Sequence to fold (155 residues):
Amino acid sequence: MTDQQDRPWMEGQTNDWHAYITGTCTIEESTRLEKLLLEDEQALMLYLVALEQLEPALEEYSAWMDTERFTDQVMAVLPDIEVPGQVGFKKRRWFEKPVFHYVVAASLTLILLSSGAFDKMMPHSGGKQMPPNERVSYSEEVMQATTTWLDKLKP
Fold:
């Protein structure tokens, strides 16, 4: 690259690029310089010269941005907080666990099967197959049984 002393007219412009590279320029100035980079080849050359001049400082910054060291520094600054158990997790009560719901459903099914509740919904045919015109849908049977049961509950 050409040294800045060979081109004294670049001095004012490289200061703009230094500010852009280090992030100290305004948003408007940054937008203007980015547009200039896309349109002007000489601006790109000035940007590269400024980048070369700032290389030692950027290497220092790059070494400072070691992620492990940075994480360790942040963790060292944070206050120690003792939290019993896990943070953010609420312990479920016994009746909120899915296993409880499965056990209740299985128990109710077993009670209904053993009481013969399902047998009352099925038409009795004496072991013979019923003709299609005499068959009643299961949903109708359930609805009839439910309405009969509800009618018995009314005073």
Notes: Residues 1-10 have pLDDT under 50 and may be disordered. Residues 147 and 153 are 10 Å apart (CA to CA).
